[in-house]
Amino acid sequence: MSPNTRLLLYAVGAVVALIVLIARFKLHPFVVLIAVSLGMGIAAGMPFGSVVKAFQDGVGGVLGFIAIVVGLGTMLGKLMAESGGATRIATTLITLFGERRVHWAIMFVAFIVGIPVFFQVGFVLLIPLVFTIARRTGMSLVKIGIPLVAGLSVVHGMVPPHPAAMLAVGAFKADVGRTIVYAILVGLPTAALAGPIFGSWIAPRIALPAENPIAAQFAGGGESVPREMPGFGISLFTVLLPVILMLCASTADVALDPASTLRSGLDFVGSPIVSLLLALLFSFWSLGYRQHFTREQILKFANDCLGPTATILLVIGAGGGFNRVLLESGVGNAIADVALGSHASPLLLAWTVAALIRVATGSATVAMTTAAGIVAPIAVATPGTPPELLVLATGAGSLVLSHVNDSGFWLIKEFFNMTVPQTLKTWTVAETIIGVAGLGFTLLLSLAVSGCSPRAPRELSAEGWIDVTATLDPARTPVYEGDAPLKFDFLKDMRKGDILTLSVYSLGAHSGTHIDAPMHFVANGAAIDQVALAPLMGAARVIDIADSVQAIDSGELNRHDWRGARRVLFRTRSTLRGWMDSASFHRDFAYIAPDAAQLLADAGVVLVGVDYISAEQFGAPAPLTHQILLGRGIPIVEGLDLRPVQAGDYDMIVLPLKVRGHEGAPARAIVRKRTGN
């Protein structure tokens, strides 16, 4: 059995164990997620310490964002409920759309609100309306709630400026405006199928408990509710204030120069956490002071609503820990390798790769960004597929079959007070409808788009490519202290009268431009012949590091625009001084510090490159930088000759010699400047 097959079987077994232990044996999800995550990591061969750290990092990574969003959003929702603001919006919607069509109204509101905001932000902003409408109309919470999450989920996966969608736009070189138009054309009917239509069918088949602790926090209607409710305008503006701020930030990112102070300010106030905080502070005046609440009452509302969120956050955090263990055990890479063996069309391949990674890891963002990186080079060599539709197909695949390894699964389960089987029947099915319908509508749109604007076949040529490989020359190529020297000779030489010329080479695996595989510093790590093509081909960002900088630590790294790049190449003093073309070995080369390596790994970077023969500090007490990057399966390209290029974004191809069972190999690397659309 191959390692990839074994990993996939372990992942399937872990998911089945989660469902059985929670649904059949009624164990608490928080406890089960911890136990199964640790078991999965150990079974996959991860070191014991790495399993625990991966789980902790996953919990921290998820809660670092979601805990703040849920906390601020819950307080805002509580104040909306107690002031009567949620009731005012709900009654207005019911009046405008009619009670029978209010679930359609919720879907459209979620679709619009969700365009500039994260799924979790839109959910906590709008869930008070769902609870209030359900209470006032007597309609099933499922019938109203499923359209809400369907609308939010569709725009989260398919519509820029969401981060994953924007990364896919960059990977496929798609036009942003055209992608948004196509996403709306595909997204609206997809959301309708998965939301109001499916929600109306499944609602009578799901019996929810009469008591819902979270809904009770948003019910309002107590003695503290003023006799006169706030106006519809001020209530709507309060709940949409985060959306407005985020939309301003997205507009600034497109319209303003990156160095603009105004853009920096708008990006700050438009970040999810800051925009929610500003909206909450504004609500203290608009829905608190104006409605004659005292400071003590507002403080009580904030305290009362946070208690029921504790269990939700613990379960969501544990789901994030399970997600991280799956990623670091190599399940995502195993799926990518399996998918690349198929010969499907780019649209189907993009959807399939994203869907498989989504099912395995639980993260729509990871699925979309990873799939885009894998499929983009294949799409370039397969003319005729509009890149905007590749973005949509990848987004649709990244949403399919959300289950117990997805933090969103637990968010929906806990807020709606459903059991695991009920969540699988509602949320999981709705997400699967989105994935399948999204692909179907994308394929239909491809027929119209391809028929109206056929694209000329793209001829592969050497035009624009720049060779950034250091020339191997025993007289000029530096060799790391203690490494094998370069020796080149001729066994036969026509210049000496032989009938042919025949060479013999002797050199180390880490000579000149070369790639370090995980096996270099990771026990049982992948050998160089097992490194997948996906990280070795795709978009790369060259970052200029000043000659005075030797340690590229987290502080230095964050002084540069590196976030969002999938492959990062550092152009340092070694390039400026021409050290890759000098036989002398220089100990004071610039290196990547462990804290910067950790930042890169946590951000999802798939390849790191440096312009000298090691990324590690010379004489470092432990090879932490290599262990961090290679431990995440991130190959390191060392010894690049970046003199022919400047800082900026490039396409990159770097291919090592395919040597079975060894830790590294010399490579040929080429880059080509990326052009805007």
Characterise this structure:
This protein has 677 residues and is of the alpha/beta class. It has 25 helices and 12 strands. The chain has helices at 3-24, 29-43, 48-83, 85-97, 102-114, 119-137, 141-158, 163-172, 176-202, 213-219, 232-255, 261-269, 272-288, 295-306, 309-328, 331-340, 346-361, 364-380, 387-397, 407-416, 420-452, 554-557, 573-576, 594-602, 624-631; strands at 465-467, 487-492, 502-506, 514-516, 537-544, 551-552, 567-571, 591-592, 607-610, 636-638, 648-656, 664-673. Strands 4-10-9-7-5-11-12 form a 7-stranded mixed beta barrel. A hairpin with a 7-residue loop joins strand 11 (648-656) and strand 12 (664-673). Helix 3 (48-83) runs antiparallel to helix 15.
Could you say which overall geometry the principal axes of the C-alpha atoms support?
A: elongated
- The helix/strand class is alpha/beta
Profile the largest sheet: 7 strands, mixed, barrel
Q: Report the uncertain regions.
A: 221-226, 453-457
Whole-number radius of gyration? 27 Å
Spatially, the strands of the biggest sheet line up as 4-10-9-7-5-11-12
Q: How many beta-strand runs?
A: 12
Helix content: 55-70%
